[in-house]
Amino acid sequence: MAEKQPTPKEMLDRIDYQPPHVDWMETPLDIRKGMYCYAANPKSVATLGLPNARPWNPLDADWKLPENWQQIIHEGFKERLERFRSVKVFMDICVRCGACADKCHYFIGTGDPKNMPVLRAELLRSVYRNDFTRLGKLLGKANGARPLTLDVLKEWWYYLFQCSECRRCSLFCPYGIDTAEITIFGRELLNLVGLNIDWIATPVSNCYMNGNHLGIQPHAFKDMLDFFVDDIEEKTGVKVAPKYMKKGADILFITPSGDVFADPGTYTAMGYMMLFHYLEEKYGLDVTWSTYASEGGNFGFFTSHETMKRLNAKMYAEAKRLGVKWILGGECGHMWRVINQYMDTMNGPADFLDVPVNPITGTRFESARSTKMVHITEFTADLIRNGKLDLDPARNDHLKVTYHDSCNPSRGMGLFEEPRYVINNVCKHFYEMPANTIREQTFCCGSGAGLNAGENMELRLSGGLPRANAVKHVHEKYGVNMLACVCAIDRAALPTLMDYWVPEVQVTGVHELVANALNLPGQAERTTNLRGEDLEELKAQAEGETDEG
Amino acid sequence: MNRKYVTAFVAVFVLFLVAWAGVSIGLQWLFGVVIPYLAVLLFAVGFVRRVMGWSRSAVPFAIPTTGGQAKSLPWIAYSRLDNPSSKWEVVGRMAFEILTFRSLFRNTRTKMQAGSLFYQLEIFLWVGALAFHYAFLTVLLRHTRFFTEPVLWPIQILENIDSFFRVEILYPGIQFGLPAVYLSGLVLLAAVVYLALRRVLIPSVRYISIASDWFPLLLIFGIAFSGVLMRYVTKVDINAAKQLTMGLVTFRPTVPDGIGAVFYIHLFLVCVLLAYFPHSKLMHLAGVFLSPTRNLRADTRAYRHINPWNHPVHLHTYQEYEDEFREKMVEAGLPVDKPLDASAEANADKE
Ligand code: SF4
Ligand code: SF4
Fold first, then answer.
1. Which of B4, B66, B125 to mutate to test the interface with A (most CBs of A within 10 A)?
2. Which domains occur in chain A, in start order?
3. For chain A, the helix, strand and coil percentages under 3-state DSSP, each to the nearest 5
4. Which of A254, A324, A539, B33 has a CA positioned 20 to 30 A from the CA of residue B150?
5. Residue B175 — pLDDT band, cuts 50, 70, 90?
6. Full DSSP string of B272-339
7. CB of A203 closer than 8 Å to CB of A311
8. Distance of CA B307 to the CA centre of its chain
9. Which residues are within 8 A (CB) of B170 and not within 5 positions of it... i.e. 6 or more apart?
10. Which of B 138-167 lie inside 8 A of A, CB atoms?
11. What does the pLDDT look like over A459-508, one tens digit per residue?
12. Which residues pair with A509 in a beta bridge?
């Protein structure tokens, strides 16, 4: 990072919820380092066949737009008004009551009024009024309309990449106006003239060509899982054997590649492998991984609906090729919004798959009967409920756990009880954060929707403030030392966030907790957890802390 | 001073003057008959066109905002109103949204104190908005007495309830004979004042407000105020007014004498509101019914939602992927569809 990071105190002191006295349309745009992501690498844009691949820099005056960019945006806007009723209705009906204004974590963390959801939407709505409504054309600025100039376009770009599409605003809006939907639409428009960010475009291009965002090639993917196999053996004495692209397996398992790549997600990945091994040994369950469909996440969702569809298509295509019965999905946030609300519509019907049935418990997952994809916490909760797992939660006794609801499974699906049920069965000490910060009102990690780059760290840390603040609260009140989540972006982003705001708290996936509690058949004595930390020491440490407190 | 509410205020004031001047120079027919017909026409056409415009747009994906537990495993209770999985649950969700402004009821206010964030319940907007809308609705329904003969009995009941609160000062001499006070009119005025005040006093709301937020508020204030004025102060000749309105609905328009200017001002402002309505944010009245984050079932994994324009896209197929990585895959012991030598031959053929 170029600039020096502000300290937490400086960051807090800077926040001021008083908007400036000048009208928002008159407030000039200031593209600040630390708040934006680098422009997309032209190679990635070209690989995907997206428009206007060229090097450009947001700090330059000239963004190297196509000659007729205004026309492209205008026509793209018009076309999408017909394609998306959501956009059209949301453009027309906002009453600017302000109920959504202080619900956005980016506004709460930065105090920048253009991060109020309503104003983020007004950035586009003002142009809509000018281009598509009679009164706007007639009255112009008096009616809140303005033409699309280069400065306006830059402002779109800057603030649409300061929205993590978390939908918290839509929960509070009396009409359900979803600024995430407007951001999705706006980013699609920006893409038409080649304004994407590299942290999205390059993973998308990687995923398209290599099967996952990180661009891990098939042999390397296997290498990484092999490495986990050794690690698991070292810690449990059991050698697990993940299967790859096995035709005729029962279940295809797909999870975000981030968990294969970086701690602490890797422990969650090991957790899946141990769970599948256990189920295979005990009950003969046949689960396969694929390197072609080795990405659960979908940064295409942050690019355009078409790009999302292109990446998502691999899931069904691979399930069909392998002839599995149904698909099991790992812990990921936006992946599950895509699966829940988009996949079947875009790439279904998946009539070549069966309605998912857990062969071990006999449970039919009726709620997934068309999409044919089950969430791993639904699957594990069902196993635990039916007494199919041999668990020793004492190995998690040193933990005081709280749970972060990821935005997408919360407000784009409604997955609340399953992960909590699982956690409560594998950990003894569980504490909820305050009600306004969890479940449907959960706060974003600050890094969602493709914003978890390094160069926009200040944005991420300020956007993550409401989440961190709630963790801090339960840390101080109950001594919480572990933040559990079901999202790979969380596992990548929250450790940084915790380091900054609440350094005493670590981050884990739910299936890491499961794996640490799970007794594998034929295991050696489990003296460490998956992280290789000595359990006796951890316990002694935890008891010491409790005694003090 | 804020330019935006000045603009809106001036606009409403000019409208007031226009009506006053018009009636003073004897344009009663214009303001009592022609403009009302025109306004109703503009309202109806504009309203229908706007709603049709929305309906014509596709709903490619089912994107309800889920505000509670989804229906999943049978032993987990799910949230019927916030994560509706059947049509009737959606009807329930919508009914609560429309009748009780349920989402607005969630409202909180974010406060930062000594580095800690607090989210306090913020109920005033919800109360103010409910008061405003129900008062508006009541006033609207009461007004049907001017368009029906005999007055419908539910309306009479409504009037009785609305006017249970009577102010009668019956000292001999100062027969301050206020007619029964309709609560709704006063609540409407008070609520409008509250909604306007929060646009001035809450900095973030002031910042986001534009002239078209001020205009309807001030216009409605003008309507309600002129209405109250007519009823309690200038005492418009109700019978004459009803002759005019009945004439309008029976398409036998007449303009009786001596109704008084305030009536025409009131009517003109209503006409402006009607004509303006379809082109404004007031269309949230209809839009809320069409909001895809609220009016769709959240059962998208159980039933496939159809996208009418599901565009075909380019895919990178498994075959292309394997062609690129076959050697590495075989070397790593990963299964492949085409063995190495066979595909080498196939490639040689192609070239
Ligand atoms: S809550 Fe809804 S209507 Fe109110 S300002 Fe926000 S988007 Fe507009
Ligand atoms: S979707 Fe989330 S990040 Fe985007 S404006 Fe709404 S609250 Fe803010």
1. B66
2. 23-196 (1.10.1060), 203-548 (no CATH)
3. 55, 5, 40
4. B33
5. very low
6. HHHHHGGGSGGGHHHHGGG-TTTSS-S-TTTSPPPPTT--------HHHHHHHHHHHHHHHT---SS-
7. no
8. 27
9. B177
10. none
11. 999 999 999 999 999 999 999 999 999 999 999 999 999 999 999 999 99
12. A485
CA nearest B86 in A: which residue? A367
Q: Does A416 touch chain B (CB under 8 A)?
A: yes
Cα B125 from Cα A348, distance rounded (Å) = 43
DSSP character at residue A401: E
Looking at the DSSP bridge assignments, the partners of residue A364 are A357
Considering only CA atoms, give the Rg of chain A. Answer: 24
Chain B residues with beta carbon closer than 8 angstroms to that of A340:
300-301
Contacts of A270 (CB under 8 A, 6+ apart): A228, A231, A232, A512, A515, A530
Give pLDDT tens digits for A411-457. 999 999 999 999 999 999 999 999 999 999 999 999 999 999 999 99
Radius of gyration of chain B (CA): 30
Which one of B298, B304, B315 has the shortest CB-CB distance to A345? B304
Q: Which residues pair with A329 in a beta bridge?
A: A254, A375
Nearest-Cα distance to chain A for B241, in Å, is 33
- Check CB contact under 8 Å for B58 and A385: no
Residue reference for tokens 């609300």: A341
Question: How many other C-beta atoms can be found within 10 angstroms of the C-beta atom of residue B124?
Answer: 13
A121 CA distance to ligand 2 centroid (A)?
Answer: 10
Contact A31 CB / ligand 1 (< 6 Å): no
* Nearest atom in ligand 1 to A175's CA: 2
Backbone angles phi, psi at B228, to 5 degrees: -60, -40
- Residues B295-340 have pLDDT tens digits of 999 999 999 999 999 999 999 999 999 999 999 999 999 999 999 8
Atom number of ligand 2 nearest to Cα A162: 3
Cα A32 to Cα A58: distance, rounded to the nearest angstrom:
10
- Ligand 2, atom 5, lies closest to the CA of A117
Give dist(CA B142, CA B145) in Å, integer.
Answer: 6
Q: Which of residues 292-331 of B touch A (CB under 8 A)?
A: 292-294, 298-307, 309-311, 313-318, 321-322, 324-325, 328-329, 331
A485, A410 Cβ separation under 8 angstroms: no
* All domains in chain B, ordered by first residue: 3-295 (1.20.950.20), 318-350 (no CATH)
Q: Are the C-beta atoms of residues A184 and A306 closer than 8 Å to each other? A: no
Q: Are A119 and A177 in contact (CB under 8 A)?
A: no
Token duo for residue B79: 């949230």
Helices (H) and strands (E) in chain B, counts: 15, 2
Chain B interface disruption, residue of A17, A78, A85, most B CBs within 10 A: A85
Task: Please indicate whether residue A177, judged by its CB atom, sits closer than 6 Å to ligand 1.
Answer: yes
State the smallest CA–CA distance between residue B179 and chain A in angstroms: 35
CA distance A209 to A398: 43
What is this model's ipTM?
Answer: 0.93
Tally A–B CB contacts below 8 A. Answer: 321
Q: Which position has the token pair 């007495």? A: B145
Chain B CB contacts of A366 below 8 Å: 74, 302
Question: Among A382, A442, A392, which Cα is nearest to A418's?
Answer: A382
Give yes or no for a contact between A377 and A510, defined as CB atoms under 8 angstroms apart: yes
**Cα angle, residue A296 at apex, residues A275 and A187 outer, rounded to 5°:** 155
Contact yes or no for A380/A422 (Cβ under 8 A): yes
**pLDDT average, residue stretch A520-534:** 96
Both tokens assigned to A414: 């409604």
Contact state of A95 with B291 under an 8 Å Cβ cutoff: no
Which percentage of chain B shows pLDDT scores above 90? 77
